[in-house]
Specification:
The chain contains nine helices and nine strands. It is α/β, with parallel strands linked by helices.
Length: 209
């Protein structure tokens, strides 16, 4: 139905491995990103989600848990002090199971449409697991669903997959802050090349603040 309604442009689909572990690293413009990316990739992509989505009591909570679980969302407790480390471990486990894991290295949705500084978690996961990183440029999804908007709108959407980046065989580089930033920047440049966004050298969370 989404393919018929939106007719999204899907480029570079051949760059997404049909099976096996892969990290899908994309810019983040809208909640719709988590729908159009797997649709274009042709395989389920797992994303981290707040554990509260899975723990709401009652019938409504059960429906929510089934829905988000069916979408491939993986619960993680973001309130604990070790949330960042726990999130990385969850990502690593998803990849060890041979699944596709989706991550937004900006750490938050872009409110101004520009690409913001990437956090190094994506590099840490790539170096630790050796899984290929497929950069993704999403274009137009913010016009489909904006923050606070109730209904989805019909608008042009483009999902662009770049060639996989290989960081395998370098687990020791995870211990180097300099290498983590270098790998992160390599991924960021690939995503920016695909999305065509203007780059802002500060974190998106700071921009929102």
């Amino acid at each position: 139905m989404l393919r018929i309604a939106y007719r999204p442009e899907m480029l570079g689909i051949e760059n997404v491995p049909a099976t096996g572990p892969v990290i899908i690293a994309a810019n983040h413009l809208s909640v719709a990103d988590e729908v159009f990316t797997p649709l274009a990739a042709g395989r389920q992509v797992h994303y981290l989600a707040k554990s509260q989505y899975f723990t709401t009591p009652g019938a409504k909570g059960w429906v929510m848990a089934q829905f988000f679980g069916g979408m491939g969302l993986v619960p993680v407790d973001r309130d604990v002090t070790s949330a960042a480390a726990a999130s990385v471990e969850v990502c690593v486990e998803v990849l060890r199971q041979g699944k596709a894991f989706g991550i937004y290295p900006e750490g938050t949705r872009s409110e101004d449409g520009r690409l913001h500084k990437f956090r190094t978690g994506v590099a840490r996961i790539a170096l630790r697991t050796g899984a290929p990183v497929v950069p993704v440029g999403l274009v137009g999804t913010q016009h489909v669903h904006a923050e606070g908007q109730r209904m989805w709108r019909i608008a042009p959407v483009s999902v662009r997959f770049g060639k996989p980046l290989d960081f395998s065989g370098r687990p020791q580089d995870e211990r180097s802050a300099r290498m983590l930033r270098e790998v992160t920047e390599q991924i960021r440049l690939a995503v920016q090349d695909l999305s065509g966004q203007e780059y802002v050298d500060r974190y998106g969370s700071v921009t929102k603040g």
